[in-house]
Amino acid sequence: MKIGTVPYRSVWVDQDDGWSVHIFDQTRLPWELDILRLTERDQVAHAIRTMQVRGAPLIGAVAAYGLALALRVDAGDAAMERDAALLAATRPTAINLRWAIERMLGRLRPLPAAERVAAAYDEAGRICDEDAAQNEAIGRHGLRLIQDIVARRGEGTTVNILTHCNAGWIATVDWGTALAPIYMAHDSGLSVHVWVDETRPRNQGAALTAWELGSHGVPHTVVADNAGGHLMQHGAVDLVIVGTDRVTRTGDVANKIGTYLKALAAHDNGVPFWVALPSTTIDWHVSDGLTEIPIEERNGAEVTSITGRTEDGRIETVRLTPPDSRAANPAFDVTPARLVTGLITERGCCQATQAGLAGLFPEHA
Q: Transmembrane segments in this chain: where (predicted)?
């Protein structure tokens, strides 16, 4: 995707700068476009924990490069296992992180230490290329859902889509998951408008999704998280598309906190609720999302405070709540499969059921 006229991926390697890894600091968006240069494992771990880099597919890709950076210091067996475990533990909910680390270890363990650094960079690059290709395919399959609405209602129809959190290109290596169909619809000349949930407490919708869509020229409106149900009741939403951090083999979906409430509202109002994901986000070992998916509990300061830019251009964090009020901050919730219309994957769309997923991915059945 492009920022202005410059094409970017969300993570890249600079071979001329010591094979350093570069990412956007997403905590500075939309106010500043700050590129971080990562040269060691601990910098990568910090970037993931603090959400300088976020989005399930992108976390996995960056962690893969983090292991490559760690191997430059010590490529021995014990160090590699230790560094892999440290990176895998940075965030518990997104399955792509664990998947990427396990894939890296599968490639690296059989190799002698002297060959591991080059192989690690190569494998991390493959993970990135595959993620970009998968998300582009998700965009093509999801585009048909938007085209079907236009076909039913007639040319010139504006399709109103609601999304939650940020599942765009800066949450992946390229294209995005939930936003990929929207970009393709817009680029093909279809009239689309996106309702962007602010996504408290970190405001990934208001800050990141709105920034992405605006940069690409896609019409959008930022709304409070609690406005979604109202919009659906009044026929202002044709389709909900969200991303996800983990999907069980039975179709339960873990995504940013507040997704479950949107699914309930969509179900009550007959609005299709679709979830877009690459197959790397499917946890084939888990069947019950409510009991088996760990839900990350983040610092309560994310709830009690908010960061923004003042009128004179300063970026400031201010307190929202009384100083003695405590805050709970579960970062994700689980939407049961019964509330999900379907899943959009790189192999096509399917029902959010074990049979539906097995039909697209028989090798995991």
A: none
Bind-site residues for substrate: 54-56, 91, 204, 255-256
Residue 86: per-residue pLDDT: 97
Q: DSSP assignment, residue 362?
A: G
pLDDT exceeding 70 applies to what percent of the chain? 100
Give the DSSP letter string of 79-126.
HHHHHHHHHHTS-SS-HHHHHHHHHHHHHHTTS-HHHHHHHHHHHHHH
**Does the pLDDT of residue 1 top 90, yes or no?**
no
pLDDT of residue 5: 81
Which segments are annotated as binding site? Answer: 54-56, 91, 204, 255-256
SS3 at position 263? helix
**How far does Cα 364 stand from its chain's mean position?**
23
Q: Catalytic residue positions?
A: 245
> Span 206-211, mean pLDDT?
97
Other Cβ atoms closer than 10 A to 57 = 34
CATH superfamily of 2-130: translation initiation factor eif-2b, domain 1 (1.20.120.420)
Handedness of CA 154, 158, 161, 167 (dihedral sign): positive
Q: Is the dihedral of CA 71, 77, 78, 84 positive or negative?
A: positive
Q: How many other C-beta atoms are found inside a 10 Å radius of the C-beta of residue 312?
A: 5
Domain 139-364 has CATH 2.40.150.20: no
**Average pLDDT for 112-122:** 98
Whole-angstrom Cα distance, residue 43 to residue 36?
10
What crossing angle do the helices spanning 113-153 and 56-73 adopt, rounded to 10°?
A: 170
Q: 205, 168 in Cβ contact below 8 A?
A: no
Domain boundaries, the chain: 2-130, 139-364
**35 has pLDDT over 90:** yes
